[in-house]
């Protein structure tokens, strides 16, 4: 299916990137000359998304100014300035600003490069993969060797049929959660009204056998520290040089 609405989680404090984030919100930190959140927004627009909710909290006025100038889709603000809702609570609040159709969810500080021209994008593939009859959520995942800036932790084990379970020592086919989800908003109809972590819903879906994963095509980058900025920019330069030869 083509998913036309999205939620971008962008309300984090970015404390591990201080002192840069003393004066700028983490989603607006530039990587290779481009604010991190624009990598997420452009990926959504490329996949056919027409409107997206973005939650804001820290240095929200800067976020509002930046998002107000984005033209590739309609941007709706979920304001968390009074109360930070964590990943799950922020998503639950933001979903109330969208309709009941399927939605893509992305983190503002995780992105990928190296998609091939002329084939469906990763988010288009994720939308086509998502089957609400069988799945609570479909997660975009990545193999550890195709990551930059990650701490080495393996999040899930990916079965042959696409089902995900929490990774444990000795398990096969480990993957990392790449920060993108396809899901139905109705999944969060029972969500608490206060702050909570999104992992709660991952575990609920696993218990029902309804958490599935799709492997990312390309290279994935996470930028959570000052050192990771240089690592990400070097990876982008290297992969861009390879692609141009």
TrEMBL record:
<protein>
    <submittedName>
        <fullName>Mannose-1-phosphate guanylyltransferase</fullName>
    </submittedName>
</protein>
<dbReference type="Pfam" id="PF00483">
    <property type="entry name" value="NTP_transferase"/>
</dbReference>
<feature type="domain" description="Nucleotidyl transferase">
    <location>
        <begin position="6"/>
        <end position="111"/>
    </location>
</feature>
<keyword id="KW-0548">Nucleotidyltransferase</keyword>
<dbReference type="InterPro" id="IPR005835">
    <property type="entry name" value="NTP_transferase_dom"/>
</dbReference>
<dbReference type="InterPro" id="IPR050065">
    <property type="entry name" value="GlmU-like"/>
</dbReference>
<dbReference type="GO" id="GO:0016779">
    <property type="term" value="F:nucleotidyltransferase activity"/>
</dbReference>
<dbReference type="InterPro" id="IPR029044">
    <property type="entry name" value="Nucleotide-diphossugar_trans"/>
</dbReference>
<keyword id="KW-0808">Transferase</keyword>
């Amino acid at each position: 299916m083509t998913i036309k609405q999205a939620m971008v989680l962008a309300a984090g404090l970015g404390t591990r990137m201080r002192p840069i984030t003393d004066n700028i919100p983490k989603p607006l930190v530039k990587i290779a000359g481009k604010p991190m959140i624009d990598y997420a927004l452009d990926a959504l627009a490329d996949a056919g998304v027409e409107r997206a909710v973005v939650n804001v909290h820290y240095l929200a006025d800067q976020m509002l100014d930046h998002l107000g100038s984005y033209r590739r889709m309609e941007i709706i603000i979920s304001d968390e300035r009074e109360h930070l809702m964590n990943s799950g609570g922020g998503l639950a609040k933001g979903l109330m600003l969208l309709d009941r159709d399927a939605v893509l969810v992305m983190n503002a500080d995780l992105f990928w490069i190296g998609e091939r021209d002329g084939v469906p994008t990763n988010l288009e593939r994720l939308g086509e993969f998502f089957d609400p009859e069988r799945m609570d959520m479909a997660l975009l995942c990545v193999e550890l060797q195709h990551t930059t800036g990650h701490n080495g932790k393996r999040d899930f084990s990916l079965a042959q049929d696409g089902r995900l379970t929490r990774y444990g020592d000795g398990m096969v086919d480990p993957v990392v959660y790449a920060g993108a989800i396809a899901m139905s908003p109705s999944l969060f109809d029972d969500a608490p009204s206060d702050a909570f972590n999104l992992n709660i819903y991952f575990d609920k879906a696993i218990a029902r056998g309804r958490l599935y994963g799709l492997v990312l095509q390309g290279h994935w980058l996470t930028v959570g520290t000052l050192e990771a900025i240089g690592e990400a920019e070097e990876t982008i330069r290297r992969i861009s040089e390879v692609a141009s030869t």
